[in-house]
Every structure is written in structure tokens, then in C-alpha cells.
């Protein structure tokens, strides 16, 4: 790898999209003047707003992100997407408001639309499981490189865009960051991407708006007891990757009984492997 850069990565030459087009595309409610407003990025973090951003205000554990809308506006945000409660908090921001039932559930599809990541996407490979995700992602990346492809990687430790390395802060980034990353990869002519997909990413909608060509399941063990009530809940979170909305086909390791359960419950065609 030839360079390391900060964890938030966006396209260097974003293409603006009209706010009125976003509202029309998804049939959303809005407040304020939309005409002439153009969006070049999406963020859920008021501290990371860039000029031209759509700021997405989400209800957090301790506060609602929409209460920081005025700060987002001062940093260059051009509109706010939030829920009804957030719209009341953002009313004094001076920005047009786009209102949805669940900003978190809308984030992936909205980000995909803004960044155009569903237009001519690279080969997308997603890996889930308790152990082995990182190793599998790196092995896949190495194989793809040997095939002569410019590759991308999103792992627990770092992101790769060709020969550039980006520090990771989450196993799977927020949906807005994931789509921004893919847009940057497109500028670098990346043709294949390996992505670690955590259970938390699936339950918190971080891979929404992505369609993987192949998804893989490695194994399951109770390494994250604080995140899930029991193993069945943990399994259901992982299984959510094996649906047509998220993957075209799957590869499942049968080295544990959980692999058999994935095969039985998968809603997409699967190929099985075993050591």
C-alpha cells in the first residue's frame, strides 16, 4: 500500500444531484424551497459535513441528530433528511427538510442514489461470520489482484482503494460512508470489492442499498454476547445477508452446524464448502 489517509473518504469529483429529484425518486414529503438545491454528498455526522451535503438527522441513543442541523448548515449542508420529530428540531436550521419515517432505513438507498453506486457497480463480494471474515476478505482481494483486477477492500482494520489504504473505524462503515467509498473506488477504476459484513451492520442498515454478487458465511460463535440476546438472534442477524435484496448467490461453510442452517434458510442459491 502506498498511502494512508483519514477514515472518511468521498469521491474527489462528485456529481451533483437535485434535491427535487431525490424527493421525486422516493416519493418523500418535504418542507421548504427545493428548487435549485443540489446535493453532492451525504453524512450522518454533523462534525464531518462538507459543502453540498445532505445532512441526515437520526435518533441516537442519547440525542437526535437533527438537533445539530444548524451546525450542519453552518458547515455547508444544503438540506436535512430526518423523521417528523427531527423536522421539528431542524425547523430553525434555515435548510429545506426532507421527511421520512425512518432516516436510518432510508440512508442506504438515498446514499446509493446520490452517489450513483448502483450504476455500473463493481463485482461485490460480502463476507459474514464470527471468525474468518477479515482473512477471507484479504484472500479474495489477493486472488482478484492476481487476476489483474483493480480491487477494493472494506475490513475491520482498513479500507483499500487500489494501492491506497484507509484507516477503519467500524467493521462495516455507515451506509453513507460505504456508498461514498464505492464512489471513490469508481473514480480509481476499481472493478471488484471484498466487504466484511458484521451482524451489527446488518441490523443497523449499514449495507442497505448494496447488492452483492456473492455473499459468504464462514462460521458462528458467541463472541459478541453484548450485541445479541442469544445465538438464535445472532444467527438471524447474519442470515439477513442471504436474501435477494442483498445477494445474488451465496457460499456457505459447512464446518459448523450453523452453516447447515444457513443453507436451509437461505433465500438465494448457495454453494457449500467444507474443510
What does this structure look like?
- With 275 residues, this protein is an alpha/beta fold.
- Helices cover 30% and strands 24% of the residues.
- The chain has nine helices and 16 strands.
- It has helices at residues 19-26, 69-74, 84-89, 103-115, 133-146, 175-187, 199-203, 231-239, 257-265; strands at residues 3-5, 17-18, 29-31, 38-39, 41-43, 53-57, 79-82, 97-99, 123-128, 151-154, 158-161, 164-167, 192-196, 212-217, 247-253, 270-273.
- The model has no long low-confidence stretch (mean pLDDT 93).
Helix/strand layout:
Blueprint: E1 3-5, E2 17-18, H1 19-26, E3 29-31, E4 38-39, E5 41-43, E6 53-57, H2 69-74, E7 79-82, H3 84-89, E8 97-99, H4 103-115, E9 123-128, H5 133-146, E10 151-154, E11 158-161, E12 164-167, H6 175-187, E13 192-196, H7 199-203, E14 212-217, H8 231-239, E15 247-253, H9 257-265, E16 270-273
Parallel strand pairs: 1-12, 5-6, 6-7, 7-8, 9-13, 9-14, 10-13, 14-15, 15-16
Antiparallel strand pairs: 2-4, 3-8, 10-11, 11-12
Helix pairs in contact: 4-6
Please outline what is shown here.
This protein has 275 residues and is an alpha/beta fold. It has helices at 19-26, 69-74, 84-89, 103-115, 133-146, 175-187, 199-203, 231-239, 257-265, and strands at residues 3-5, 17-18, 29-31, 38-39, 41-43, 53-57, 79-82, 97-99, 123-128, 151-154, 158-161, 164-167, 192-196, 212-217, 247-253, 270-273. Strand 10 and strand 11 form a beta hairpin.
